[in-house]
Each structure stands twice: as C-alpha cells, then as structure tokens.
Specification:
Shape of chain A: globular
Distance between the termini of chain A: 34 Å
Strand content of chain A: 25-35%
Structural class of chain A: alpha/beta
Strand order of the largest sheet of chain A: 1-2-3-4
CATH superfamily of the largest domain in chain B: Histidine kinase-like ATPase, C-terminal domain
Order of helices and strands of chain A: EEHEHEHH
Largest sheet of chain A: 4 strands, mixed
Oligomer: heterodimer
Number of domains of chain A: 1
C-alpha cells in the first residue's frame, strides 16, 4: 500500500501511481493534518495535483532527490489564489 | 488621467509614428538594417510598456507584430507589400486604441475580438515554425506574449537568478507544457516528463482552471500546466516531447531578454516612465532650494517617487524610499533620499552584485536597459498645452499692462508737469518692454513645432493613395525642420491633405499616360517648407498634367461661378485661382479620393482662417504648384485701429491693402451704392458705420478716410472717420454669450484698459 493513513497523517510511500490519486483524495476529503512523503520515490502528476490542492504541511524530505529539488519549492511557494478559494469553500461546506 | 497612463499614451504616439515611418522606409529598401532594428525596438518597447496596464488585446497584437518584425530582422521572413499593409493596419489599430485610452482610459469593448482576429491574421499568414501555431496564444495562462511577465508568473525570483547563472550568457529555452485533460488515461505522467527535461534549470507548475472543491474533484483530470527553463538545445527538448508535440511551446529567450528578467527579478528594473519620474525627482533634489522650501520639496519628491514605484509593483522599494525621506527630513539634507533614488536607478551595478556571472554576458546583456535609459535621456518636458497657453495669456496681460506705462508717462508730463518723472517712467518702460518681448519670444519658441510633425504623416498617406489609384508616386519632403506655432502647424494638416489628394487624383497621371508623354512613370510630389520672414511657406509641387486654364474657365462658367463677360476677360492665372472658388470641381466623376468640389474651397478657408494666403500656379503638362503662406504664429495679430465716433475698432492688418483719403467730390453714386476710382479701377465704397449699423457721423471736412481692404477676393474701400494706429494685440475670441455675435473676430485689451473689438470683415461684407 503506497498510500496509507495513520491518525491525522497521510503517508506516501514508494511509487505513488496514478491510481493512488483516488485513495489520496478520499483521505483528504476525510480530513487530515499532515502529509508524510519521506518514503516517496515517485509521485504521479495526479497525486501531485492532490498535494497542491490539499495545501497541508508536508513532512519530508522525500526519498527521491529529484522530487525534493523541483517539487518542494513549488509546494512551499503555493500562493495560488484559487487554492485559497478552495479552502474557503471547504470551510463553508463543513459548516453547512 | 493617471500620470503613468498619460505618459504611456504620449510615448506610444511617438513610437507608433516612428514605427510607421520605419516600416515605410523598410518597404522602400528592405535591406535597411537600421530601420528594421529601430522598428523592432519601437514595437518591442511599446509592447513592454503596454504590459503595465490592463490592455491585453493591445499587448497581444503588438506581440504578434513584434514576432513578424523579428523574423524579418533575422532574415527568415521577407517583407512583402501585403505584410506591410497588414502590419500597418496593426499599428493603426494600436493607434486607435491609444486614442481611445487617452479619452476613456480603457480599451473599447470590442478590443478582444478585434485582437483575436488580427493576431490570427498576423500569425496565420506569416507564421514561422509549426511549434507556435499549435498552442492557442490566447489561453491567457499559456500566453508567452511577455517573456518577463511569463517568467515572473511561473518562477520564483531566486529560480530565475539561478537559471541566469547557469545559462551563463547563452539563450535559455522556455518550455511551456500544457498536457491535455485526459492524459492520465493514456498512461502519461506529465510531471515525470517535465522533470525529465534535459538541463532543467527552473520548474514552475500552474493550475489551468481554478481548482474545484475537494468534493467535486475528479482526481483523474489533469489540471496542471508546466513551465520550465532549460539550457538544453531545442532539438533535444523536441525529442523529449516528441509524443506530445501539440501540447508544448518552446520559446527561446535571448540572453539579453533573460538578463533583463533576472535583473527585474532582483527588483530593480523599472519601467521607463517610472525611471524617468525618478530621475526628475533626483534633478529636483539636486537644485539648491531656500531653506523654507526644503521640506516641501523633499516631501513632494518622495511622494511622487513612492507612488510611481508602487504603481510599478515595487512596494518594498517605495517603503524604503519613505524611510529615506524621513531620514532626509530629520537630517535636514536631501542626500539620503537622493541616494536612495539613485540606488534604484543603478540596476547594472546591483544586479552584477547579485548575479556575478552576468558581467560576463557582455554587450548583449547591456542592450536591454540601454533601451530605456535612451528614452529617459533627452531632457525634454512634456507639458500640457493648456499650461503654455496660460503662460501665453499672462504674457498677453503683461504686454497690456506694460502698454499703460506710456500713458502714465504722458500724464506725468502733461497733468503733473514733471518731465523728469515722465522720462524715468519711459526708461523703465523700455526695460519692461524688452523683458516682455523676450518673454513673449521664449513662450512662442515653446509653442514652435517643426513642420515635420505634419509632413511625417504624408509618406504613409501617399503610399496608400497611390496604391489605391494605381499610380506610382515618389514623395519628396524638404524643409521639415522649419518651425511654426503649434496652432499653425495643426491647422495645416487638413489643407495639405486635400492638396496632396488633389495632386494625386487630378494632377498625377497613370504610369501609362506618363510614359506616353515621355515622363518617368513614377510621378514626383514634393512637400516643401521654408521660412520667409515672419511667414512659413509651404508648397505642394507635382509634376503631373497641370491645369488647363481653358477647362477651368469652361467649368467655372458651366457651374455659374463666372458670367460670360468674365469668361471673355479672365486671364489664365486668374482662371487657375478659380479652383479655389466654392463648388468647383473638374473631376468628371466623384471618387472617394477627391472630386466632390469642396476640396480646394475648404483648403482656402482653412488657410485663411489661420491667417494665411494660398496661391496656385500651373503649367499645362508640366505640373502644378500650390503655395501656402502662413504666419509663424497666430498668437499675436497685427491690427489697424479705426476710430468711429467714440468707439475704437480693429481691422486685421493682413486684409488691408492701403489707406487713402478720398475727396468727397470724387465719390460716385451708383444707385444706392457708392464707389470711387483708385488707380484707374472702380472700387466700391462701404461706410463702416453702415456695416455696423451705427448712426451716421456728421459730415466734416473735405475728404473721407478710406481703408482699402481685400476681402473674399474683392477690393473694397471702407469709409471711416479717422485712422488710428497699427498695433500688435493678443486676440481673444469672443466666448460664452458673446460667441453668438457675428462680425467680430475677437477682442483685445489696450494699454489704457479699453477694449478693442476686432472686426471680421469677411463676415461683415
């Protein structure tokens, strides 16, 4: 299992392929506090999308140095306005 | 209007004008490297500055045009006449939008569809490589129109600096990879692919559409776009993306453009307008100021500079500037603020410190910023015309006030018997008079503009017209440096336009006809300007078929402009002048170029309104010359004062042909009209009192004073009671309620405070 959940933490381990995106989404929809990708060696674009939307704190560094080199700065730099909109919408939906 | 926008509009007008000229020059001689370089630079600068404002359609069409010019510059695309037509059309469109911006501060509502169409046309017809066609340039996320904007948007500042360092002066490729939505189902992993880009220097990822809420999210829709900077060669990159060529754009960013961006990323490259503003503030601070003005001056400089910086998106710099401002105020010295400003304007030095390798980029890296400093360089001011007009009015008042001193001197002598005081007043008057005249001259000089401002619109016009009419025309312009008052220059365009149109339509023959007459097939139309005393002489000379006086006479007779008697006696020269009569046209049919029979009449009116004269000479088969004489300046008019009873009137001096005293006995009555004989000609005599419907004056003396004036082509004697004197006045048109009163050209204030009404004889008679 490359994607698993323990408490409020979602773990990404090994090769996170395209089919794992759905599992990841479900965990995110259920609500989580932290994503741990220390064991991640490959991340499919579909999974990375989820990380972008989730905007959760990431525990790293990931096992693959390429991922660390290119993707960590992007996740750090997330200021995407629409991502913030998503969060705002989320809160609203939780309240209703 | 926002100051930056106003500057942009002004700058854009100049750049468009230059670009138009260069384009035409380029069409004539396609090898003109200088012209294409300048053209490219103008369009590039314009596009760059337009990025400051919300005018994307404008930026987009400029970008498309820029691409074409770049291809032309690199000799990968030959310049065809069709292409010139299309790019001229693009520049025209930009010009229209600039005017719209000037009026409304926004682009017209239909700008986007127009831009889409124009860009499609530009790109469609002259596209260079397949890669560019494939990505719709209008998906704003993928829009690479502005390299700087693209870089800023997708990459962090330090990433750009890092990439610049890695590039080491070599061009960098910007790879934009926009995978399709369903790519996951094809087994693609766009992220993996993007990370495999050879020699990847920076990677940016964007969401293509705003993310939906988590609950609505389909995890298998790809919503990512990738932008990468790579120093790898294009073929290498193309190989990597060989399976998805239609989803990738590869744009080469030249070393200089990239160095610009890198520098901008370090926050110091400012738009030219902002830079110019900052420079002005420095100049202001460097002037010595009296102590009491010091604080105000520092504060205003700081305020202007900070606002400009904020507008350009450099809020931190603006904040830093305000700190420096506070320091300056506390220290009572301008230096802290001045130095802070100077630091902002020293991009080369600073960026060299941040990215040391850039020094090695050499001249290419310097080219970018030089563009902007060149434009900020000339020490010219753009001043609102109203301000100069206000100055002019004040000087007018000064002249009036000054003119009251001789009255005072006379009173001092006659009323108070102090000859000494009178002399002193006269001396002082001489000094003030001299200063006032110099002041007047200086302001006049501000208002002076070279005739070239009007002439420069003609190459384009003549080209278009000649193409439309199927004629070959070489336009020669001489004396474009000749200067005249702005109003005079502006009043010149319409008459010149009519004359040049007439020349091309009626004067110039078709190439076949010309060859048959033994003339070169390309006609030569000359626009000449020169200064002649206090007049500007403008001539439009063509070597066309000329005017046949017989035809003119016949036409004029047919149209009832002259009667049979006149037809028999009229000289050829006088006949030529008939083309200026209202309702005259020799053209058999009305074309959309000219021939409606209003042209030359309008020309004459416009010229006369500007206080000028127009004359035409023509030799059949050889050509036609139209000559316009215009005053250098319209601000000061010379008038002759005329006393009627107790009132004083002015008659414009340029209408007056002479003054005579006519013995009462020599006045002949013809029915209810009066006339007298002047140099063997019968001249009708009109009493000014009758014209103005004033009560007749009592008969006195043996002679009557007559002003001989030429109005509407007729010589008329104006009977008055006494001549006044000639003087220069600043004529102000009647305004408000008074504007409706016909018969007066305007008013002027006299030195003794009286108001002089200047007559408009053309309306009166």
């Amino acid at each position: 299992m490359t994607i698993r959940r323990a408490g409020d933490t979602i773990f990404l381990e090994g090769v996170c392929a395209v089919e794992d995106a759905e599992t990841l989404l479900q965990h995110l929809q259920a609500g989580a506090e932290l994503i741990d990708w220390c064991g991640c060696t490959h991340l499919h674009a579909a999974c990375f999308q989820m990380l972008l939307i989730a905007r959760l704190p990431m525990k790293g560094p990931p096992a693959n140095p390429e991922i660390e080199r290119w993707l960590v700065p992007i996740l750090h730099a997330i200021e995407m306005p629409s991502a913030q909109v998503v969060e705002a919408a989320l809160v609203l939906e939780l309240e209703t | 209007m926002n100051e930056l926008l106003a500057q942009f509009v002004a700058e854009a007008r100049d750049l468009l004008q230059e670009a138009g000229e260069d384009l035409l020059a380029l069409e004539r001689s396609p090898d003109n490297e200088e012209a294409i370089n300048r053209l490219f630079r103008s369009v590039h600068t314009l596009k760059g500055s337009s990025g400051l404002f919300e005018v994307q359609p404008l930026t987009q069409i400029l970008h498309a045009a820029e691409d074409i010019f770049q291809a032309v510059r690199e000799h990968t695309l030959p310049l065809t006449p069709e292409m010139v037509d299309l790019t001229l059309k693009t520049l025209d469109q930009v010009g229209q939008w600039i005017e719209h911006l000037d009026q409304n501060e926004v682009l017209p509502g239909n700008a986007t569809p127009i831009a889409v169409e124009l860009v499609a046309e530009l790109r469609g017809r002259f596209n260079r490589g397949p890669a560019e066609t494939l990505v719709n340039p209008f998906t704003s996320k993928a829009d690479a129109s502005n390299v700087n904007a693209a870089l800023d948007r997708w990459f962090a500042k330090d990433a750009i600096a890092y990439a610049a360092k890695a590039a080491g002066g070599e061009p960098v490729n910007l790879v934009s990879y926009l995978p399709e939505e369903g790519c996951f189902f094809k087994g693609e992993d766009p992220l993996h692919l993007a990370m495999q880009i050879p020699q990847l220097q920076a990677l940016g990822i964007e969401e293509r559409l705003p993310w939906p809420a988590l609950y609505d999210l389909n995890p298998f829709n790809c919503n990512l776009g990738f932008h990468a900077l790579s120093t790898a060669d294009r073929p290498e990159l193309e190989t990597l993306f060989r399976c998805v060529p239609d989803q990738v754009t590869i744009t080469e960013i030249t070393a200089s453009a990239f160095a610009d961006s890198a520098r901008k990323a370090s926050g110091i490259v400012l738009p030219a307008v902002v830079e110019a503003l900052l420079r002005e503030q420095i100049d202001l601070l460097e002037l010595d100021a009296p102590l009491e003005e010091f604080a105000g001056r520092i504060s205003s400089a700081a305020r202007v500079a900070a606002n400009a910086l904020r507008f350009a998106g450099h809020s931190e710099d603006a904040a830093a500037l305000e700190t420096a401002h506070a320091e300056s105020l506390a220290a009572g010295r301008a230096e802290p603020l001045r130095d802070a400003l100077a630091d902002l304007l020293r991009p080369e030095v600073e960026s060299a410190g941040i990215v040391p390798d850039q020094v090695a980029l050499g001249p290419a890296a310097q080219a970018g910023p030089n563009d902007t400093t060149e434009r900020a360089g000339p020490r010219t001011l753009r001043v609102d015309q109203q301000k100069v007009d206000a100055l002019m009015n004040l000087i007018g008042e000064l002249v009036v006030a000054k003119n009251s001193l001789p009255f005072l001197a006379r009173r001092a002598e006659q009323q108070f018997g102090s000859r000494e005081l009178s002399h002193e007043i006269k001396d002082q008057y001489g000094v003030i008079d001299r200063i006032a005249q110099e002041l007047q001259g200086a302001v006049m000089a501000i208002r002076m503009m070279p005739v070239g401002q009007v002439f420069q619109r003609f190459p384009r016009l003549v080209r278009d017209l000649a193409r439309k009419l199927g004629k070959q025309v070489d336009l020669v312009i001489e004396g474009e440096d000749t200067e005249a008052d702005k109003n005079v220059i502006e009043s010149l365009f319409d008459p010149l336009l009519h004359m040049v149109r007439n020349s091309l339509d009626h004067g110039v023959e078709s190439p076949e006809q010309r060859s048959a007459c033994g003339k070169p097939s390309a006609a030569r139309v000359k626009l000449l300007a020169r200064r002649d005393g206090d007049q500007v002489v403008i001539e439009v000379v063509d070597d066309g078929r000329g005017i046949d006086p017989e035809v003119i006479k016949r036409k004029a007779y047919e149209r009832g402009l002259i009667d049979e008697v006149r037809l028999a006696t009229i000289t050829d020269d006088e006949a030529t002048m008939l083309v200026f009569a209202a309702g005259f046209s020799t053209a058999e049919s009305i074309s959309d170029v000219s021939g409606r029979g209003v042209g030359m009449d309008v020309v004459r009116n416009a010229v006369e309104k500007a206080g000028g004269r127009i004359a035409m000479t023509s030799v059949k088969g050889v050509g036609t010359t139209v000559r316009i004489d215009l005053p250098l300046s319209m601000a000061v008019s010379r008038v002759m004062t005329v006393v009627l009873g107790k009132s004083l009137f002015g008659v414009p001096m340029d209408l007056i042909q002479g003054i005579v005293k006519v013995p009462r006995g020599d006045i002949v009555r013809i029915k209810e009209c009066e006339a007298f004989v002047l140099r063997d000609r019968v001249v009708p005599l009109v009493r000014l009192t009758q014209l103005l419907e004033l009560p007749d004056e009592p008969v006195s003396g043996e002679e009557i004073a007559v002003l001989v004036v030429r109005v509407n082509g007729q010589t008329i004697g104006l009977g008055i009671s006494a001549f006044g004197e000639g003087m220069e006045v600043i004529l102000k048109p009647l305004e408000g309620m008074l504007a409706k009163i016909a018969g007066y050209a305007g008013t002027a204030l006299l030195g003794d405070g009286r108001v002089l009404l200047v007559l408009d004889l053309k309306e009166l008679i």
